Amino acid sequence: MAVCEYKPGLEGIPATRSEVSYVDGSQGLLEYRGIRIEELAAKSNFLETAYLLIWGELPSKTELEKFQDEVRYHRRIKYRIRDMMKCFPETGHPMDALQASAAALGLFYSRRALDNPEYIREAVVRLLAKIPTMVAAFQLMRNGNDPVQPRDDLDYSSNFLYMLTEQEPDPFAAQVFDVCLTLHAEHTINASTFSAMVTASTLTDPYAVIASAVGTLAGPLHGGANEEVIAMLDEIGSVENARPFIESAIAQKQKIMGFGHRVYTVKDPRATILQNLAEQLFEKNGSDPYYDIAVEVEKVVEEKLGHKGIYANVDFYSGLVYRHLGIPTDLFTPIFAIARVAGWLAHWKEQLAVNRIFRPTQEYVGNHGVSYLPIEKRS
Ligand code: ACO
């Protein structure tokens, strides 16, 4: 077997062959199934994009309507899942609640053969439908309220915002939110997708696959960064303080949250779209002081770190949009998960089609032939 050079973080090492999405990090290009993200953000919606990612092509009108109806029908969660979630501590992070609830779905929906297309479709629909309901239910229950039932007359994003706030959202806000979901739906073999693929390769059930990916997305170097961005803007507090804050953080070799990417060496195209959306929202609903701080932060980071290819990533502006929609900061990553379920499922399906269990090798750098030391002789 050919021996490859060890690369920390598997940087640059292909882990699969995929047709799902493509990134050219030096050009700032992102395509889902060959379609540019800018076009999908402008013309598609999240559920249609999810269909595209998972089944490989845009649905016909009839296919899309059928898919939307199925997802709408499966939005409710069983009362036993809701009651289980009621027992979660309200101080717990919503990503932990989501990981546990996603895994719990596997208890309720029987495992069937993974080569059965009906089972695959059912799992796809259930996960896309129920994850938003679980995120909204935890939010309401941790505040001592009963969750609200999904509303069949509302589309995917409007219904989620309704379940979260108990108020029908402004159509423009719901549209912006839907674009955010589209932008976060997929991004090649990132950490959580790889985690989903490794779990999928053991032929376990799809709920375990998604639970595993949710756990991986939760980390601050991945999906958790958008929360940290808001914490950072909070700490900076004013436009004047942005430059000294960032310069001092860079001098102390701290990572600036919402910047840098393993793949992009230019500004993440999703950050550009999100920045435009944020500007439109603020124009319509009134300005946001955090946005002015963010723009100054971006300017300073580009000046200081642009030469290293460090620019704003998707997490930098998404938090600002969610904050403006009144979404609590610790729900930003669960919302990322709601969107990324589409990509995880697309890779799950792709993995099943060519499956071989993941079993990389290692470079052993430990000792050999060490004698066992009895406990009384150990220092
Ligand atoms: N702020 C300051 N310096 C940075 C940053 C940053 N955000 N990101 C990278 N660098 C610097 C590193 O210090 C390092 O410098 P050096 O070569 O002088 O030592 C160099 O750039 C390479 O950094 P690595 O950490 O090795 O790059 P890697 O590709 O492993 O990391 C990552 C990518 C994890 C995204 C990193 O840029 C980071 O931690 N960013 C902040 C967290 C963040 O925003 N994450 C969201 C990513 S997008 C997503 O997951 C949806």
UniProtKB/TrEMBL annotation:
One of its GO terms (biological process) is tricarboxylic acid cycle. The active site is at 261, 315. SUPFAM superfamilies: Citrate synthase (SSF48256). It comes from the Bacteria. One of its GO terms (molecular function) is citrate synthase activity. Transmembrane segments: none annotated. It catalyses: oxaloacetate + acetyl-CoA + H2O = citrate + CoA + H(+). Pathway: Carbohydrate metabolism; tricarboxylic acid cycle. GO terms for cellular component: cytosol. Keywords: Transferase, Tricarboxylic acid cycle. NCBIfam families: cit_synth_II, PRK14036.1. Belongs to the citrate synthase family. This is Citrate synthase.
